[in-house]
Amino acid sequence: MPSALPLADPAPRDGALPASVAAGAEQRDFGVYVHVPFCRVRCGYCDFNTYTAEELRGARREDYASQAVGELALASRVLHEARVQRRPASTVFFGGGTPTMLPAAQLAGLLKAVDERFGLAPGAEVTTEANPDSVDERYLHELRDAGFTRVSFGMQSAVPHVLATLDRTHDPARIPEVVAAARAAGLQVSLDLIYGTPGESIDDWKRSLDAAIEQAPDHISAYALIVEDGTRLARQIRRGEVASPSDDLQAEMYELADTALAAAGYAWYELSNWSRDESSRSRHNLSYWRGQDWWGIGPGAHSHVGGVRWWNAKHPAAYAQRLAAGESPAVGRETLDDETRRVEEVLLRSRLREGVPSAMLTAAARTSVASLIADELIDARAAFQGSIVLTLRGRLLADAVVRALLSD
Fold first, then answer.
1. Taking every annotated instance into account, which residue ranges of this chain make up the domain Radical SAM core (predicted)?
2. In whole angstroms, what is the distance from residue 229 CA to residue 214 CA?
3. Does 310 fall in a domain?
4. Total domain count for the chain?
5. Which helix (H) or strand (E) holds 31?
6. Nearest 5°: CA angle at 239, between 233 and 243?
7. Which tens digit of pLDDT belongs to each residue from 272-303?
8. Which of 52, 171, 191, 289 has the greatest number of beta carbons closer than 10 A?
């Protein structure tokens, strides 16, 4: 969740949604995202909306859970008043920040509040992100007993000097311990990796991949490091203290990841995500890429229902003040027109292994398909069957492919 919020129309103080959001709601999945904006330390590369204890200024971590429950009540009321058909949550995702900085009982209470307001669909996927040093076996069992099904650990790297550059504080030796504890608790496990950190070599990256694969998680995410303006890492690069990430090296690292993960039995289903099988994919993230409905709870959280998108006040104090005044915490909103929704759907679905239906492309964009096939950027067989699916080379050049698919 990037810290910068887009410019758009002001959101109504009561959070009311237009009647248009109800159209077709019964055909869309509904998910809940809970943003827990607390971290013990701020990582130098991170641009997410997170706060250390020293940065809270006017807000208390102890009050957050009750505030989030208050927004859940508001969400239920707003959707009811907009005549959106009640749908149980098919996915719930606790992200951050570090959600597991809250006591397990508070996360359990928030999940119970989601269930009370919306219900949980049979087989609902319930995920929390966690740092390896923020949980233990007892904590993970408490989550499973509360209804959590999945935990995503921020491993990032197995190499100490890479973790140090990223300002990550956990010991790599902790990863096998928490994965074993999560499995003992009956939770699915995902490991998140970052590649392209300044000073990271191909051998370093291979070491991290091998360490992640050795744990046999259900799911692995691998993200190229992006240097965000305003972060400590960006300032270090600007001052020449560390080198800027190399695009060519990151491409080589991506290819290495795809090869190693495929050999270990993982299949890519989104540009940065691999899973052992369809049941271990992140269904919550897939709902974003497929343009489904979700309500984002918490400071800076984004929501989308029926083509209307909005976002909350960023700082926990501002978020709390709005809820305490009986107002929606939303500060900005935009209503997407049909063409914007089509463009976003092409952009997001192009990231998926299932691809983009050719019928979604304009006539002009369809003329580019033959050259994309010739350049080995999209799969020829899939294209003849009506879907635009990226090849490995296409995944490395995804931005260029998307530009061609969105040509007028």
1. 24-267
2. 35
3. no
4. 2
5. strand 30-36
6. 60
7. 999 999 999 999 999 999 999 999 999 999 99
8. 191
